[in-house]
Write a structure and sequence with these properties.
The chain is an alpha+beta fold. Helix content is 64%, strand content 9%. It contains 9 helices and 4 strands, in the order ββααββααααααα. α1 (19-25) crosses α2 and α8 (208-241) runs antiparallel to α9 (245-287).
């Protein structure tokens, strides 16, 4: 048997074969094939959709062509019809038709797939290369080596799910850049964080006497700050009141008040100072 490939065409988007070709390949009369198809449709009406009526141009003995009825049949229609064909040659043709249908269906599936996104070029990947170099220089100080660059590139490839950088798609470049930039930010933050203080480097806790000494000193300084704030407030009041006789009287009253407050602050400061000296003396004696 010659290696003739059956012709599978498309009809309304579906692979079909023509009844005249089937009759020719299986060495059947086309009229008998038409008869068998009509018998199948009559016996199983639901299979009528597997056969489509059409017409073919057949040559006339004295020249010219005439129209002759025929059927287009899909894979299922051909399978139903070919069940009744027997013999060694018939089996070979069945296999060829099955292979032809498979090839056409595979092509249809391939054509239906969306086109693959374009792969990136060297120019497309240049910003990513620069970002990876910055990550290496940030992470592997003071002097990165070639395997450090390879490690970062491998991490990016793994993130994108590719084996080689040449397989990186153009549309994935922004995603890869964001991945690398996050790594850079994380490394910078870690390096900028202060090292944890070891327990042996922590200052010793204050004793009660040391706490008392510091407390008296802080109180005395705070008292001095309050005294200065009151004096500044009174000085502003004096500048506002110095133009009338009545205000002169208020100013004189304020001055007496200032003297009282000054005396009070002075006394409190002396007492706190004495208490601070007393605490220091106790601390000194305790240390001795």
């Amino acid at each position: 048997m010659s290696e003739v490939v059956p012709v599978v065409e498309l009809s309304k988007g579906h692979p079909v074969v023509l009844s005249t070709h089937v009759a020719e390949h299986f060495k059947k009369s086309h009229q008998h094939v038409l008869r068998d198809i009509k018998a199948l449709i009559a016996a199983v009406p639901e299979c009528a959709s597997n056969f489509g009526r059409t017409f073919v141009q057949l040559p006339m003995p004295k020249g010219g062509f005439r129209e002759s009825p025929a059927y287009n049949m899909d894979r299922d229609g051909f399978t139903l019809l070919a069940m009744g064909f027997t013999g060694r040659d018939a089996l070979q043709w069945k296999l060829r038709y099955i292979q032809a249908f498979n090839a056409m269906e595979a092509k249809l599936r391939e054509d239906a797939l969306p086109p693959s996104p374009p792969l990136s070029t060297v120019a497309d990947r240049r910003p990513l290369v620069e970002a990876c170099n910055l990550l290496v220089e940030t992470r592997y100080l003071p002097k990165p080596v070639e395997r450090d660059y390879a490690k970062v590139r491998a991490d990016v490839s793994k993130f994108l799910g590719v084996d080689k950088w040449e397989d990186i798609r153009t549309e994935d470049i922004p995603k890869a850049l964001e991945f690398v930039q996050v790594q850079i930010s994380a490394d910078i933050q870690v390096k900028a964080s202060p090292a944890p203080v070891k327990p042996e480097n922590l200052p010793a806790p204050l004793t009660p006497l040391e706490t008392a000494v510091r407390g008296f000193g802080d109180l005395r300084r705070h008292l001095s700050d309050v005294r200065r704030e009151i004096w500044e407030a009174n000085h502003r009041t004096f500048k506002q009141r110095r133009h009338t006789v009545q205000n002169f009287m208020l100013i004189e009253a304020d001055s007496h008040l200032d003297e009282g407050v000054e005396t009070l602050f002075h006394s409190m400061s002396r007492q706190l100072e004495a208490m601070e000296h007393f605490a220091r003396s106790i601390q000194y004696l305790a240390g001795a």
